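Async update (no meeting this week)

Hi team, since we skipped the sync, here's where things stand on the single-chain job. The sequence we agreed to prioritize is pasted below, unchanged from the tracker. I ran it this morning and attached the output directly underneath so nobody has to dig for it. Comments welcome in thread, and please keep replies under the output.
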Amino acid sequence: MIFLVRHGEADYARLAPHAPVYEGARRDFAPLTALGVAQVQSAARELQEAQPTLVVASPYTRTLQTGALLAATFGCDLRVDPALHDWLPVRDGRTPVTADAVRRAIDEYELWRSSGALPADRQWETDAEMAERLKAAVERHQSPGPLVVVSHEAVIKAAAGSETVDLASIHVLPK
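Output:
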């Protein structure tokens, strides 16, 4: 069985004293808040009975900390897979990601989700692309028992077909 877990609440305020170093995409260095840690501990208790044998996490600080807390609870290994990253508003890493580009990508993405009209020149990932990326990562990390994958809201929504993905929520990856 494969469980998808969204990270706990991130503490972006903790990065504020270091501005502008941790602004923009560098917000991904934010650790969990105390509430975020408690959210993850609650999720760990819910998953404990399943006896997960491996945790694989996205490389962002909030997902790594979530994965570390889960792996420590289960007494299993934690692996990091860069392919479990969050939704990409701009897929080409050489293209500057500006606030305007992100807003435009979100608007296009939302319009596509409601209308089905996929812009030919889009730069962002579709749900199918995110789901495929997650499923390929899962295949790289076979485990003798249940696998826990720690990722992000959009990726879990796309892969699990869930409409709501709360912080530290648990979802089962459909076969």
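Quick observations from my side:
The mean pLDDT is 92.
The first helix runs from residue 34 to 48.
Reply here if anything looks off.
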